[in-house]
Amino acid sequence: MMSFRLCNSPPVSKHAQTYATAQEIAARVSTHAVRAVDITETALERIAHYDQRLNSFIRVVPDGALEAARDIDDAIRAGKLVGPLAGVPVALKDLIDLAGVPTTAGSHRLFHHTPTTDASVVTRLRSAGAVIVGKTGLHEFAYGVTNINPHTGPVRNPWDLARIPGGSSGGSGAAVAAGFVAAALGTDTGGSIRIPAALCGVTGFKPTFGRVPVDGVVPLSWTLDHVGPLARTAADAAVLFSVLAQVPDVLAELSRGLAGLRLGVPEGFFWEELDRDVMSGCEDAVRVLTSGEAIQRSCAFPHASECGAAAAVILAAEAAAYHERRLREHGDAFGEDVRVRLDRGLFLSAADYLAAQRARAFLIREATQALEGLDVLLVPTTPEPAARIEGDASQGARASLALSVRYTRCTNPFNLLGFPALSVPCGLSREGLPIGLQIVGRPFDDATVLRVGHAYQQLTDWHKRQPSI
After folding, report:
1. Residue 93 catalytic?
2. Could you tell me if residue 9 is inside a domain?
3. Has residue 173 been placed in a domain?
4. Distance of CA 232 to the CA centre of its chain
5. Which is the catalytic residue, given 30, 168, 221, 242?
6. Which of the 8 DSSP states describes residue 207?
7. Where are the alpha helices (DSSP H) in 257-381?
């Protein structure tokens, strides 16, 4: 058994570097305290040794990672400027294009492709000095929350190997939680960054819709998809977001604390049907955030419960449109639960789709009104901790669909609305499973969302807890 811990003081060995934050690693690499090659070798060694138990990676790219690390070390020796992610090991969800490496989208080999160019987000990561170490596992074509994948096998939660990591970016969440990488990219269409962040005890950020480019990323739903980071801290997520969205002023906002912020707690929907440990953990987190200089206010989002239905129609229609030819020619190559979802989408009419989009416009107006006079909303990320792999999560398409409805209950609305949303660890259940609090802001006010998350992590240590595997 190996215990994972956070290194709070400067590490004294190469392996201790694994537990540092992305900011700590970049600072030490850029000041010659440690070589990027050493950081990369450690990450690759740990993945090789431990990931056979988690299955968080579909593919590791050691040669490319070591070459990138050597280039960073050479640049530093030459006195050249290096970026804010210098030498930081980063993983990519395997529907994001990495030049020369197959993109599988967690699907049957018939649907794989090998890109000749990087996705824009990868180009930006490389320019900032990040070292891409591999591609992480996901629910097939990102259409589910369990990461039980018939083509690549299940990704397992580092906190309990018998449980799901959440999805669809479960490999990215598990890889960060296990200390394989300091950060990873995921995609989020109904909660697919925030759900694994909550279930794996890490920090996950879904930016405002459109702020981060999605070219070179296999789509699930063109009008719901977001790309964003999973990391150990909100500060690291802010660094990643700043790089991905090319917004330079985000980090300055973090230091402003909670003074004067107005934190809204919506009545009703988001606080119903919760596991009691989730309820307790999130209520405690709200108390922490509102016990000082911040102001707590109740607010109303009367039709929040309608968001899931509208989002489900839009998602199903757009996913079916993208996959229609594959379904027609190679329907048997899809896993059962994804095929059922896509088949349902094919039976939706244009009238259904347009009705959902009209509902979306109404709900955006209502949510905007709910945020009037407020800076952020505070709600749970998931209604319950991680489910067991052998149980509901593995009982076919119907069970997979039911789990998707349950786990996306509190996240789905903010994909439909396009609002920025951050999940931060806020507790552990009685079974020792992570719980997440979701912080939601106004469109394009991503910096305030990250500021609140960072302030919470200055007051608590849940983000420092590490699993043992």
Report:
1. yes
2. no
3. yes
4. 11
5. 168
6. P
7. 276-289, 307-330, 336-346, 350-370
Which residue, chain included where needed, has tokens 């040794």? Answer: 49
The one-letter amino acid code at 333 reads A
Amino acid letter, 356: A
- Contact assessment for residue 88 and residue 182, using Cβ atoms and an 8 Å cutoff: yes
192 is catalytic: yes
pLDDT in tens, 210-252: 999 999 999 999 999 999 999 999 999 999 999 999 998 899 9
Spot the catalytic one: 56, 120, 172, 192.
192
CATH code, domain carrying 249:
3.90.1300.10
Query: Domain range spanning residue 48?
Result: 15-464
329-364 tens-digit pLDDT: 999 999 999 999 999 999 999 999 999 999 999 999
Number of domains making up the chain: 1
Which residue, chain included where needed, has tokens 């802001």?
A: 441
Residue 3 covered by a domain: no
Pairing of strands 434-441, 376-380: antiparallel
Residue linked to tokens 């200089």: 293
Number of helices (H) and strands (E), helices first, in the chain?
Answer: 15, 11
Instruction: Indicate whether 4 belongs to any domain.
Output: no
400: annotated active-site residue: no
Residue type, 58: I
How far are the Cα atoms of 86, 184, 221, 324, 403 from residue 27, in angstroms, in the given order?
8, 19, 37, 47, 41
